Amino acid sequence: MTTRKPSPGKLLYAQSGGVTAVINATASAVISEARAHRIEVLAARNGILGVLNDDLLDTASLSTADVRALMHTPGGAFGSCRLKLKSLAEDRDKYVRLLETFKKHDIRYFLYNGGNDSADTALKVSALAEEFDYSLVCIGVPKTIDNDLAVTDSCPGFGSAAKYTAVSVRECALDVAAMAETSTRVFVYEVMGRHAGWLAAAAGLAARRDGDAPQVILFPEVAYDEDAFLAKVDAVVKSNGYCVVVASEGIRTASGDFVADAGGGTDSFGHTQLGGVAPYLAGRVQAVLKHKVHWAMPDYMQRSARHLASETDLAHARAVGRKAVQYALKGLNATMPVIHRVRDTPYRWTVRPAPLSDIANAEKTMPAEFISADGYGITEAARRYLQPLIRGEAYPPYGRNGLPKYLQLHFD
Amino acid sequence: MTTRKPSPGKLLYAQSGGVTAVINATASAVISEARAHRIEVLAARNGILGVLNDDLLDTASLSTADVRALMHTPGGAFGSCRLKLKSLAEDRDKYVRLLETFKKHDIRYFLYNGGNDSADTALKVSALAEEFDYSLVCIGVPKTIDNDLAVTDSCPGFGSAAKYTAVSVRECALDVAAMAETSTRVFVYEVMGRHAGWLAAAAGLAARRDGDAPQVILFPEVAYDEDAFLAKVDAVVKSNGYCVVVASEGIRTASGDFVADAGGGTDSFGHTQLGGVAPYLAGRVQAVLKHKVHWAMPDYMQRSARHLASETDLAHARAVGRKAVQYALKGLNATMPVIHRVRDTPYRWTVRPAPLSDIANAEKTMPAEFISADGYGITEAARRYLQPLIRGEAYPPYGRNGLPKYLQLHFD
């Protein structure tokens, strides 16, 4: 009989859901930390899909320079995916295929980098591995610009999107201020955030003092009332000369209808596909108030803008990657490294493990005390929370050609 | 009888038309250079409108720190305007009012910072001053992100918008590449440029090699053919997995209709108000090709993004400001300091005077040899021209709060 030579096993890393400006920084930290522990890292192509299809990349093929370049490269270098596995009962065959891929490559550590859906998947994989008596440590690694994960104080990816949003809104506001006398009086800027207004709130950081732009913020947490909205915009234009509106893609009427349902359709997570709130609101302002209006829809720009990443956010993204590997090696199964805020000012934070079961499928919307009484702005409490997350500039290196030196992996 | 004490007279600076990330850098250079020559500088509030209404700001009220801060502040610090004066015959009363304001404040130098419409206004003012025998030197100072001014090799403001566009498109392309397998396959990015495709062409710099995003660029110089466009996009998706489209707001069908005429209306320059090409094209792609699509409309973001200014562009903007003052003091009436390109590589440039009459109302579209044979890309000649303009990063200073330290002037 043969005896199987004892092996620490390999680590599998996969990216899931919408990418961010710093998810590759987490990947970079995972690979570096694993290499330090002499653990081989395989990366799934296009997230969980690559595991289902046994389409894995051996990251040993990445040079130290590549791993360093991942740190400042936006997007999802190994490919991400929108594919939510259903319950163990419904999708058992798929879960079993995952396990087969794990066994085939002697994968003993599974790090799934995503949001609450991914945390749920990692949790189910862990349960099945136990059922099949296959020793596997499953770790969820946080990532989302929506900042809507439970337990963690903030989500890697959010701080950079928040900084980009606050800076862009301040810049556009200066533009509108210059043009308002003879041209554009109302500017509408749409931000991502399906059910939580965190990014919309971050836009509020662009205002230095009361009355500064953005003068009107529309949150998914507050029911959209057209008459009240138009009245508010008109009042701001009359008193201030112009009005900057920041609207979340997820705003809904009191009856619960998405204002942007024009967008229509649903993605493979079953979420309604949004987008188009800005042109809709702009149209209403122009038609009813007769003010000249401009609008912007940054869409993917806001989650890919590595050129304006937050240093704090980058530090978070790297830390959860390092810790995820350490937790895996310690056997802290079914956990997620989360950001714990020790103090607002000076901002102090640490990373600690939290059970995936507390995070899976949960969604953290903004506390009511973060939204001003009139529903159109943020409070001091919100500023205290948000401020540290956009702090510091972490620029990517640029080439002589004036473009950032981003890494683009080419798979055969 | 009294004798009027001889005076060198004052200099009036005004901003016109759409603002840019670096027009205030030109203003800063004008003020610094004039101060060096002991010339008082008045700035018109909201461009020519401030001259008509005798609403002028004495820039002596700006501290040296303010003038330095102008160098890295986007928007139009003194206010701009969209107000085109008609012929001397039609708008004679207005031109006479301008002259009255000049006389009242002993303004002997008029620097109008704008595009070809502003060059035309400066030219007419100069003619009227001559007719009234009022000694006045009129200088046009170039500015426009559209890069469509005649004579000058490039326009201050364009290089920064071009850099922002190329970097943003590359970032969004990495995002789409990561999502394409299970989600978005086509991404449409709309750029400004009413009649000239310079910014659309700049997006082409995001591509490192053939086949890189953006795979499809739609120029105003090329008639839009929906069938050919959709066939091209579909072919790229089939071969590459995803397709990034960059579309100019000004694209038109063979019959000359603006694709985005949904936007409707006209601004006070009489230009058709555009916008909305991206959602339109995205809708066609989704409806006909059934590919999942996302789209972005940066609008004012692309001309206000001082956080990603081009160092070359900033140098141009400062140089034309300095030279404008020097030309004024030399009495080079009815001229504009223009960028003269000495060499592509290494890039060398100088500033020299050109007659306003060669620039007023002219419009420079892209040479045919800058657009690839199939009409969807840029040529090597275009790259040679565009490349130096986005070179170098000129970041604004940031505060501890993670936001740029932009100057916001408060007028009473």
Automatic annotation (TrEMBL), chains A, B:
EC number of this enzyme: 2.7.1.90
Q: Which InterPro entries match?
A: ATP_PFK (IPR022953), PFKA (IPR050929), Phosphofructokinase_dom (IPR000023), PKF_sf (IPR035966), PPi-PFK (IPR011404)
Which amino acids does the record list as binding substrate?
A: 144-146, 192-194, 249, 300-303
Q: Which reaction does it catalyse?
A: beta-D-fructose 6-phosphate + diphosphate = beta-D-fructose 1,6-bisphosphate + phosphate + H(+)
- Specify which residues bind Mg(2+) according to the UniProt entry for this protein: 116
Q: How is its activity regulated?
A: Non-allosteric.
- Report the function annotation for this chain: Catalyzes the phosphorylation of D-fructose 6-phosphate, the first committing step of glycolysis. Uses inorganic phosphate (PPi) as phosphoryl donor instead of ATP like common ATP-dependent phosphofructokinases (ATP-PFKs), which renders the reaction reversible, and can thus function both in glycolysis and gluconeogenesis. Consistently, PPi-PFK can replace the enzymes of both the forward (ATP-PFK) and reverse (fructose-bisphosphatase (FBPase)) reactions.
Q: What is this protein called?
A: Pyrophosphate--fructose 6-phosphate 1-phosphotransferase
Q: Which organism is it from?
A: Lysobacter soyae
Give the classification, highest ranks.
Bacteria, Pseudomonadati, Pseudomonadota, Gammaproteobacteria, Lysobacterales
